[in-house]
Amino acid sequence: MSLQASDYDLRRTLVPFVAQVLHYGPMRSYAPEGWPLPVGHPEIYFEDDVDALMHVLPQGVLWAMCKVANGWDRRALLVGREVWSAQARQERFWEANHALTLEFGEDAVQLCEGLFNVVAKRPQKVSDVPRHGHHTPKKEVGRLKELELKRTGEQLLTYWMLSGLWKDIDPNAPETRHRGDSAWAPLVSHFARTQPMLELRHGPWLKTSLTPFDKSEAASHPIVRLIEGPLRHTLPWWLEHSLERWLALEHHIWQREPEGFIQVRQRQRALLSTWIEAIGHTQWFHLLTPFMDLLRRLWLGLIADALRPGTAESASAQVPRFLPAEEIASVETEDVVARALALLNTVYSGERQQDRYAIREAWGSLLGIGSQLSALYAAARRVHPAERDAHHVWIIDWWARENNDALLERLDTIARGIEGRLG
Predict the structure, then answer these.
(1) Alpha carbons within 13 A on the beta-carbon side of 242
(2) How far apart (Å, rounded) are the C-alpha atoms in residues 242 and 249?
(3) CA atoms within 13 A on the CB side of 61
(4) For residue 352, how far is the Cα from the chain centroid?
(5) Is 79 helix (H, G, I), strand (E, B) or coil?
(6) Is 308 left (phi over 0), alpha (psi -120 to 50) or beta?
(7) Is 110 helix (H, G, I), strand (E, B) or coil?
(8) 109 near 154, Cβ under 8 Å?
(9) pLDDT tens per residue, the chain (423 residues)?
(10) Residue 230 phi/psi, 5° resolution?
(11) Cα-atom radius of gyration of the chain, to the nearest Å?
(12) Is omega for the bond preceding 137 within 30 degrees of 0, making it cis?
């Protein structure tokens, strides 16, 4: 069957769909009309269609990084070709990435076409639609899994398109509003395995194999390649956005059965450990700040629960960004541990003691991940002052300025109390 561009009004279907996902993200649910779009058929595009889509793609991902990922917030960066001679700066996203070139190829277009077909509204009688047999869920998943989305713009586009549509296609999404069908489960698992930032954002809730850091193959590890590649200066904001979902879904974790709670906590710890290991290998230490911010927020959540204990259902519903110093100082560590254990025992009151110990171990192990951060700082401190390079100086100054030792010591004490360890 020949295809004619006049049969597909792409500026009414595909282009606005992509623009809306990049602009609104998961705030909306998506069911565009016009299914199915032929995938990988450039003949269905008028020249104006191509121009419109090529305008939306770079503008859309930059909008998402600057607006959704708080690109207006100044972040700490080490800027330079080599880490040992990098300069420490505080910059906004567009200042740090003014020289970034966003590249998009044919795979970027096919990604948009395929995702359109995944979520588009289908007619009741699919058999009446021409070419419907070319767009079964299995074939759509197969086409999308074959894409090689490695260019700079394509990596950002994949993250923002999939994050915006995740609740619509993931059948196991923790959020209550999604239309996920089990047919798409292999799709979300594939993108989580192949895109490090999607794995970080969505991985804790997926039953996929993680990509643990392997020092023997460090140069080829996907996280190391991302850190050492042209997108490095996007990562301070990008990482923060990924980890923000963890905090937003903290209360969902407490609604899970014991096995689910343990799995999520273990996967969170595994992801944090893998990223910290990879950052330690590359020594671009400024990328540790989003992970320290996550631990600080989790700690503040524990403090807030101890200050204002509520019901099990409301606990950790909002993980605070800030608490007054006097309120923090008024809470003893023992009170935080006692409140945390009381919450756990209330939520899982009907479970066996053995299961509750497993939950305590998984939760405490996550909160104790700061020991890996401390090890990187300690290694930098062991370098003689006369031999310290720019990245050594940066992590030492940052550590003292943020008083990280005190925070991690408190968090480790809480983690040991939750786990029931004596030392």
Answers:
(1) 26
(2) 12
(3) 26
(4) 33
(5) strand
(6) beta
(7) helix
(8) no
(9) 567 766 678 889 999 999 999 999 999 989 998 888 988 888 888 999 999 999 999 999 999 999 999 999 999 999 999 999 999 999 999 999 999 999 999 999 999 999 999 999 888 777 667 677 788 889 999 999 999 999 999 999 999 999 999 998 998 888 755 556 788 999 999 999 999 999 999 999 987 777 788 888 888 899 999 999 999 999 999 999 999 999 999 989 999 999 999 999 999 999 999 999 999 999 999 999 999 999 999 999 999 988 877 655 555 557 888 888 898 888 999 999 999 999 999 999 989 989 999 999 999 999 999 999 999 999 999 999 999 999 999 999 999 999 999 999 999 999 999 998 765
(10) -70, -10
(11) 23
(12) no
Whole-angstrom distance, CA of residue 160 vs CA of residue 22: 6
Distance CA 183, CA 374 (A): 43
At residue 210, what is the residue type?
A: L
User: pTM above the 0.85 mark?
Assistant: yes
* Neighbouring residues of 230: CB distance < 8 A, sequence distance ≥ 6: 100, 101, 152
Tokens of 297: 């927020």
- Burial label, 103 (beta-carbon count in 10 A; 0-12, 13-18, 19+): middle
Structure tokens given for 106: 């044919």
Which residues, at least 6 apart from 164, have a Cβ–Cβ distance to it below 8 Å? 21, 22, 24, 25, 26, 30
Q: Which residues of 39-63 are buried (b: 16+ CB within 10 A; e: fewer)?
A: beeeebbeeebeebbeebbbebbbb
Amino acid at position 290, single letter: P
Give the Cα separation of 362 and 309 in Å (integer). 22
Q: What angle do helix axes 370-382 and 390-402 make, rounded to 10 degrees?
A: 130
Residue 134's nearest CA partner among 53, 41, 33, 31 is 41
**Residues, the chain:** 423
Q: Which of 137, 153, 248, 139 is nearest to 202 (CA)?
A: 248
Q: Which two tokens stand for residue 53?
A: 């889509």
Supply angle C-alpha 360, 273, 190, rounded to 5.
Answer: 100
Spatial CA neighbour of 61 closest among 152, 157, 149 = 157
